[in-house]
Each structure stands twice: as structure tokens, then as C-alpha cells.
């Protein structure tokens, strides 16, 4: 495939281009699930080429679902024609920052290859987990699922870059709804990582089903906590939502350019000095694995906030050149026919030196909030996150009193400015979700637990 793409590069150079790259992608996705006992299996793959051409500061983009050289050449010709037509009227010339050409072939580590496990075995695993719900009469609805994505990507350009990546990401998920009279309580749990089928050994569906059923049922006896500003300890998963949705997007250079809160704040202290936030291309036990981005740039870790101070932004080659920054390897496209955008990878709050007990002591009287249900944020830092459960903290100790997971809201900058402590343990888990900025992207997020003040929607 690379030889064919290099022939495409040779053909593109005939159009006297300033720059040309070609991406190939073949993505296989599968979803096996049971919804209240109804088993379904959905599998499929897509493949194709895309190309970007820069001529006189204008960029043209085209793609094709064919892998024939003739059709690749047609796509290159179309992209070149678009660039040449736009060049006389383009308002801002496209210039890419220089990067060292890379030639590499990498893939995620799989102890158990996903393709070596049969569909029958994957479905049987789901059937076994279904049996768990027979012991929970108040669970009236459930979904058990196993998903996987195997993503093969190649990037070449006329600067000498040739990058081939194979990324495998399995996922497990369970959701349950318990009912007692007129009261309804739901809970879910999910895991996905860039690895092989060993993920299922680490997070067995049977154990997830047991945990979800128990928690949903227990929540039937719970009430909402008091509402308003509340001191809390936020678990690693909810911290991830804060790091990704309410902070990370503010530091993507295209959104900075558009006027996010972080614009013009480089070097300024905006949150507690206890907070350092990093976006990294590869982390152990995380699902946002992206050693090279879709421009062929080798990814590097980016300190977005260091000890409370704005210290960097995520970018692609265009924004790196525009703001005289080093390219960070954050240009990502979900499918071959998508143009690469500035996207996060693995975004997390760096662990501090507080034990769980010390975090509870810092809060004194408040709540330990766990489990992510849903969430959203905007470029001003305002956010809203639905949580799964809250446990009372009284006199610096965790009690047995459980509340229904409250909705957390506020401004991320204000919340992180109120930080009382950050936990020692680093954990990332955004479950089976994808970031949805214009197009999907598989990301992960988390960090150490955080003690802070948030606004709770309670009784």
C-alpha cells in the first residue's frame, strides 16, 4: 500500500504543489450486545484514501473509497484543482510548521489478539453476564455490550514522512435500570483501552454487571443530596470529564483562536497551583493511543497548565506555524474522508500527594462523587456533569450514607481554583465514549482524585 501511495506523491508533485500528503485508512468496528435478552451483532469496515494539497497557500482536500491507483490520482487531481482555484482569493495563506520527516511502523500492544477471539466466544461472554441480573428482581432493564475497533492508518507526504499505525481498542459496558414503584434508578460502568482482549480479563463483564446491578438497586433507597455549593472529592472518572470537557477543549489551538477562555492567557495563573494538566499521545492503560498524528507528526506530551499557570496549547502544523509553536501531534481525523482537526488524546490532571483519607479530611463535611453518567461544557469553561452516586463525608471520614448521583455544574476555572488537594493515584477511564467535536475521536481522560467545591443540583 505504501508503494502505491508513494506513486501518488510522485503524481502530485507534477502539479507543482508546495505540499502534498496522502492518508490511507481501513477501520473495522464491531458491536455485540444484549438489550434485555435480545442479542445483536453488528460488524463492518471502511477503507479509502484522502489527500491534501497546498498550492500558493491554498489547501485542497479530496478522498476516494477506491484503493486503485487511478482513482487515487483522480482524487489528487481534484484536490490540486481546488487548491489552485482558491489560491487567488484565499484570505490567509496556509503554511505548515517544519517537522522532522518520520519513517516508522507502530501498533498497540495486544497480549490476546482481538481477531483471534471468535464472535461466538464474545457473544457467549455476554450471555454469561446476563445471568447476573436474575438475582436482582428490581432491575427491569439492562444492556450488556462488548465493542472493538481495529484501525489501520498510513500517512505519507512529499517531505519524506512514511508512518504506519495499527490501533486496537476493545471496550466493555453495562447499564441497568432498577424500578420500585414510581422510583427509577439507573447506573452504568464501562471500560475501553488500547490493548487486546486481555481487557476483558481485567474488567470481566460478569463483575461489571454485578457492580452495576448492585449500585442501581442501592440507589433506589437513596435520595438526592442537598443542592448548592458543596465541598466534594471527585473520583478519577469524573475528574476526567472535567479535564477533557471543561478544560481540555479550551486549550485546542483552533478553539483558542476562536476565543476560548485560554486565549491570551499564556503564562498567567488561572487555577490552584496544585493543578497540572497534561495531554499525552500514549499512556499505559489508556484508550487515546496516538503515537503519530494524521499529519505524520510524532506526538509529544503537552503541559496545558503547570502548577496553575497556562503553559501550552495543543496544535497541528498550521497553528504551530501561525503562533510560532512546536507541533504537538494533535491533528486527528476519525475516518479517511475527514480532514484532520486539533483534537485531544489522553488528558489528565497530574496526581498530587494526597491519600484518599487526606482528601476526605480536607473536605471535612461534603460528598465523595463517583461515576460518570453524562456531561457537556463550552469554551468559557462552564460545565454540567451527571454523576452516578455520592457518598457522605462527615468529620473528614467516609460514611455509609449514599445519595443519588447529583448533577455537578460550575465553571472549570473557578472549580479548579478551589482545589484543596489532588490524590496520589493516576487513573484514566472515559468508558466507551468518543469526543464529538465536529467528528468523533477516541480519547481518554482522568487523573488523581480532586477535592474542591462545585455546585450540586440536589433537593
Radius of gyration from CA coordinates = 24 Å
Strand content: 35-45%
Which structural class best describes the helix and strand composition? alpha+beta
Taking pLDDT < 50 over at least 5 consecutive residues as the criterion, the unreliable ranges are: none
Biggest beta-sheet profile: 7 strands, mixed
DSSP helical segment count = 10
Total beta-strand segments: 22
User: What is the straight-line distance between the termini?
Assistant: 60 Å
- Portion in helices: 10-25%
User: What overall geometry do the principal axes of the alpha carbons give?
Assistant: globular
Number of domains: 2
Q: What is the average per-residue confidence, as pLDDT, rounded to a whole number? A: 96
Description:
With 459 residues, the protein is of the alpha+beta class. The protein folds into two domains: 2-219, PmbA/TldD superfamily (PmbA/TldD fold, 2-Layer Sandwich); 228-457, no CATH class. The chain has ten helices and 22 strands. Strands 1, 2, 3, 4, 5, 6 and 7 form a seven-stranded mixed β-sheet that branches. A six-stranded mixed β-sheet has the order 11-10-9-14-21-20. A five-stranded mixed beta barrel has the order 8-15-16-18-22.
Amino acid at each position: 500500500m505504501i508503494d502505491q501511495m508513494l506513486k501518488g506523491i510522485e503524481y502530485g508533485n507534477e502539479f507543482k504543489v508546495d505540499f502534498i500528503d496522502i492518508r490511507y485508512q481501513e477501520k473495522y468496528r464491531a458491536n455485540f450486545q444484549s438489550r434485555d435478552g435480545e442479542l445483536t451483532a453488528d460488524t463492518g469496515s471502511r477503507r479509502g484514501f484522502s489527500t491534501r494539497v497546498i498550492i500558493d497557500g491554498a489547501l485542497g482536500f479530496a478522498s476516494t473509497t477506491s484503493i486503485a491507483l487511478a482513482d487515487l490520482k483522480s482524487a489528487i487531481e481534484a484536490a490540486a484543482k481546488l487548491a489552485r482555484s482558491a489560491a487567488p482569493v484565499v484570505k490567509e495563506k496556509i503554511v505548515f510548521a517544519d517537522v522532522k520527516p518520520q519513517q516508522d511502523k507502530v501498533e498497540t500492544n495486544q497480549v490476546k489478539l482481538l481477531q483471534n477471539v471468535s464472535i461466538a466466544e464474545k457473544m457467549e461472554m455476554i450471555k454469561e453476564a446476563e445471568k447476573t441480573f436474575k438475582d436482582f428482581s428490581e432491575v427491569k432493564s439492562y444492556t450488556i455490550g462488548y465493542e472493538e475497533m481495529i484501525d489501520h492508518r498510513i500517512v505519507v507526504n512529499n517531505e519524506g514522512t512514511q508512518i504506519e499505525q495499527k490501533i486496537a481498542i476493545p471496550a466493555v459496558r453495562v447499564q441497568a435500570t432498577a424500578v420500585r414503584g414510581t422510583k427509577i434508578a439507573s447506573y452504568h460502568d464501562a471500560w475501553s483501552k488500547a490493548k487486546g482482549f486481555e481487557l476483558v480479563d481485567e474488567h470481566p463483564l460478569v463483575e461489571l454487571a454485578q457492580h452495576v446491578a448492585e449500585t442501581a438497586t442501592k440507589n433506589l433507597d437513596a435520595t438526592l443530596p442537598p443542592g448548592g455549593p458543596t465541598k466534594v472529592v471527585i473520583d478519577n472518572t469524573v475528574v476526567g470529564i472535567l479535564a477533557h470537557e471543561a478544560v481540555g477543549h479550551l486549550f485546542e489551538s483552533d478553539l483558542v483562536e476562536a476565543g476560548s477562555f485560554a486565549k491570551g492567557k499564556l503564562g498567567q495563573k488561572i487555577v490552584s497551583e496544585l493543578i497540572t494538566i497534561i495531554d499525552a499521545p500514549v499512556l499505559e492503560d489508556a484508550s487515546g493511543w496516538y503515537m503519530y498524528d494524521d499529519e505524520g507528526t510524532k506526538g509529544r506530551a503537552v503541559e496545558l497548565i503547570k502548577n496553575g499557570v497556562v503553559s501550552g496549547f495543543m496544535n497541528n502544523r498550521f497553528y504551530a506555524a501561525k503562533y510560532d509553536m512546536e507541533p504537538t501531534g494533535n491533528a486527528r481525523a476519525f475516518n479517511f474522508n475527514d480532514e484532520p482537526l486539533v483534537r485531544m488524546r489522553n488528558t489528565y490532571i497530574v496526581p498530587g500527594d494526597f491519600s484518599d483519607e487526606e482528601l476526605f479530611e480536607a473536605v471535612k463535611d461534603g460528598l465523595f462523587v463517583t461515576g460518570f453518567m453524562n456531561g457537556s461544557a463550552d469554551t468559557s469553561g462552564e460545565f454540567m456533569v451527571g454523576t452516578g452516586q455520592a457518598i457522605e463525608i462527615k468529620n473528614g471520614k467516609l460514611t455509609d450514607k449514599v445519595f443519588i448521583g447529583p448533577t455537578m455544574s460550575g465553571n472549570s476555572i473557578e472549580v479548579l481554583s478551589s482545589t484543596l488537594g489532588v490524590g496520589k493515584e493516576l487513573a484514566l477511564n472515559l468508558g466507551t465514549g468518543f469526543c464529538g467535536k465536529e467528528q468523533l475521536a477516541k480519547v481518554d481522560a482522568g487523573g488523581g482524585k480532586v477535592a474542591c467545591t462545585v455546585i450540586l443540583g440536589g433537593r
